[in-house]
Amino acid sequence: MALTTAPAPLHRAAKGPRVEPRGPRREGLAGYLFLTPWLVGLAAVTAVPMLMSLVLSFTDYDILSDWSELNWVGFANYERMFTQDPTFWHAVQVTVLFAVIATPLKLAAALGVALLLNKAIRGVGLYRSLFYLPSLLGGSVALAIVWVSMFSRDGAFNGFLALFGIAGPGWVNDPDYALGTLILLAVWQFGAPMVIFLAGLKQVPVELYEAASVDGAGALRKLRSITLPILSPVIFFNLVLETIHGFQGFTSAFVVSGGTGGPVDSTLMYTLYLYIKGFTDYEMGYASALAWVFLLAVGLLTVVLFSTGRFWVHYGDER
Amino acid sequence: MKAFVRTVVILALLGIILYPLFWVLGSSLKSQPEMLSNAGVLPEVFTPGNYPDGWSHLQTSFGRFFVNSTVVSLLVVLGNALSCLLAAFAFARLRFRGRATWFAIMVGTLLLPGHVLIVPQFIVFRQLDLVGGEFPYLPLILPHFLATEAFFVFLMVQFMRGIPRELDEAAKIDGCTTFGVFRNVILPLSRPALVTTAIFSFIWTWNDFFRQLVYVSDLPKYTVPVALRLFIDSQGQSEIGPMFAMSVLSLLPVFLFFLAFQKMLVEGINTSGLKG
Amino acid sequence: MSGTPRRRLLATALAAVLLAPLAACGDDSGEAPAVDSTKPVELSIFWWGGDARAKLTEEALALYTKKHPNVTFKKTWQANQGYFDKLATLTAGNDAPDIFQIDDNFLTEYASRNVTLDLTSYQKSGKLDTTKFPESLWKYGVVDGKLAGVAFGENTQGLVFNKTKLTAAGQPLPTTGMSWDAFISWAEAATAATKVPGTQDPSADYKAFWIWLRQQNKDLYEGKGLGFTAQDVTAWFDLWKGARDRKATPTADVIREGNATDITKQLVVTGKALTSWVWVNQLPELQKNTKDELGVVAYPGDPKAQWARAALYFSVYRGSDKKDVAVDVINFLANDPEVGKVLGTDRGLPPNLDIRAAVLSGMTDAAMKTSIEVEYELGKTFGPAPQVPLRGHSTLRSELIKAAESVQAGKATPAQAAEAFVTAAKSAISK
Hints:
The complex is a heterotrimer of chains A (319), B (276) and C (431).
Chain A: H1 26-56, H2 76-83, H3 86-117, H4 124-136, H5 141-150, H6 156-162, H7 178-188, H8 191-201, H9 206-214, H10 219-248, H11 250-257, H12 270-279, H13 284-312
Helix pairs in contact in A: 3-7, 3-8, 3-10, 4-8, 7-11, 8-10, 10-13, 12-13
Chain B: H1 2-17, H2 19-27, H3 32-37, H4 50-55, H5 62-93, H6 99-108, H7 118-127, H8 138-141, H9 150-160, H10 165-173, H11 178-189, H12 191-207, H13 210-215, H14 224-229, H15 240-266
Chain C: H1 5-19, E1 41-48, H2 51-67, E2 71-78, H3 83-92, E3 99-102, H4 107-111, H5 120-125, H6 135-139, E4 142-143, E5 146-147, E6 150-155, E7 157-162, H7 163-168, H8 180-194, H9 206-215, E8 221-222, E9 225-226, H10 230-245, H11 252-259, H12 267-270, E10 275-279, H13 283-288, E11 294-297, E12 309-316, H14 323-335, H15 337-343, H16 353-361, H17 366-379, H18 393-408, H19 414-430
Parallel strand pairs in C: 1-2, 1-3
Antiparallel strand pairs in C: 3-12, 4-5, 6-12, 7-10, 7-11, 8-9
Helix pairs in contact in C: 2-15, 10-19, 18-19
């Protein structure tokens, strides 16, 4: 099979939506056959709890009371959110700020390191694994202790700043800076998008680079004309997923604030607020409403991302 | 020379990024009072005893938790790899009525914050009679055989769409059925996506605390993340040293898993099939 | 929120459709089977705590099985992080354990929603014997007139101080009964002498605030409402603002480090302050985390404001089908002398006074002994216990932390923060 058939949309201009070609009828059957496990999972495991949470968002569900105590409250939970709950708006602000800063930084770090590691240098496998190490810690207790300790007044970070004569504040414990440490934590754990970028980079046929070199293209031009277009489906995936993940941002907020959202609500991410409402205040009906508003808002954002995607994402299956 | 510069940059970055992990390692070798008074990396008094202490601290040896976590994680890897691959093939390659809608629904399931699903899911699994028993991990594993983790389906779709459709056509001309295309073209070329899925499935399951906490109730059946929390009781005793020691140990299996599988990432399409 | 009958009907119908098969599991109306000494019974029991507590509790339960070979236990113990999330989830699935440990943060949340069995009838019939309990202690388990939990372990507030550093600097040690102003002056002098801040700032600490309120004939709760006003909170915040200005406390970010409930974050063990505001029975664990010698006294002001607080309770799940056996087990754990010896002071002082005396006489650990002696001493002057905290107590606690920290960080004046706190607290307890 010749490589000339490879996708490589070199210099291909962005184009509009592709007209779905009609496949043979039996592909429909095959489609549903391959989809069967997913459909069963959707029906049995995913959809029912999701719909339950939707229904519960119109009730005063509190987890603990007997189900016979459940009251239908209509749109009261939704009304309360938008009209009587300043903390909701505060959490929205914190979350947007976090996501808008952390997501691009994390993606940039992941792509940068992936490009750095996409060369056959000695020990590259080990380096890859080492760069992934921070992400292995997940949201563990150990990480919580480390992060808080590093960014306390007498922690390692201030020790580092002291080398330059700077006396840093008590980062995690200061309402002005705590969100910053949260963002740093999210960016620090860039391993997952990095691995996906690395895997994507493997789809770029080397021959294209060789051909470009013959044409006298520099490294930057190769990156722009070859690597990024071919990588675009994977960039797109990471962008969508990290955006969703950034808005959810539960783990790092939980880790840094010990689950409180403090100091003074400065790290009260939306999902953390939702968790506190549901499991500490036992207002699961309200928490469910919060969750569905989140789904709608982030869903809308995803739709926007998808619609921009057609201008810059190049798929190998397009002709 | 260029490679040298690259290596220097890599090592410098690693030095910064890994500092907190050195700290964890150092702390796992400190005594409890020192842990609170010495914020540096290196222990003043070398205390390796945290490791044996942590290992046998609970009535059940920590080795047992490693076995439990390994079993659960490997089964989840298997389930995700199999089921998500099938679903992704359908979404990426087959044309059927309702595909766009199903795809949108699939992405939609990624969006709902998980905490409101915990109670409803528990109720569903209880109704299906999957909670408890001798093998309490079914609610943690079974969904993964049904491609419920949309992240991986979506990931594989994106990778498959990077595979030139000409390959499918050629295979069909050679007489392949749809399944043949899946088996002979897509499957071998999906290795980077599969490896990525395997890595993430393993690591995320290994680290997942909340769901394992809810479904596993018997000490010998506990998994690593649940067991690690047992060292810290915020109102009473806190065995931080042994907790750090076991945290370090619990990183080892995932690190090795990653180290082994990332090799397969390297041997991606560049060096295999497509070249011919 | 009480809906109209029609709304209730709608919701019930909905629940019925979604949860049909569950109804059979959550039977709480049927008569529990009488204690039968031959029929095998497996009770599920759930608690949080460390490994030491697990060993002791399992040993105690084994003693019960020895006496009643037909009764065995399905034991689950976990760390407190996630404990109540899991308990709530199990409850929602009608799968709560027959017996569970709970504390005063959550007792009312569970009791007022009828998750806990009302033990009053068992207490009246003597099947649950609380006659040897201090009255104020068992009453601290009564919610809305129902006995919702059996107090296990008594404790009370304790101010823990670093004896070694104070003595080395020639400073006097704090004493029980010193006034708040005297205490702050003492802390200021201690800071100057030792170069370590004299005291953690407890303005975010509900238990210190509570004692302080009680000393002025107020309370945290009164009936279904708050027992204090915004003025009280302002005065409290002002008191500690003054202390911070006088350098009697650490800086705001360090205060926040110490606001965590974890033993290992308490400033008295991390060496960042000379005193921490804790529970008396935490002294032994604190002592394990530092080389310096620690001591404990009551919180400042009149110690009569302190009370016998139930460190935690055991409750019976209302949906259990083995209620009688479950109550019998709790009764055994609370009153059997042999069990008392096994459990010791792990959950606080034993609730049964006879057992408490026996355990006390056999105590060898120095820190443990000190903490028990101090609690014993304070116990002589304990006033009546306040009512069990209302629903929303944990929210009130975190709102107090938020308000106090906003003052400490200079984000709000004491009056502004007090106003915000009272508003948030009112809304937390009114839901």
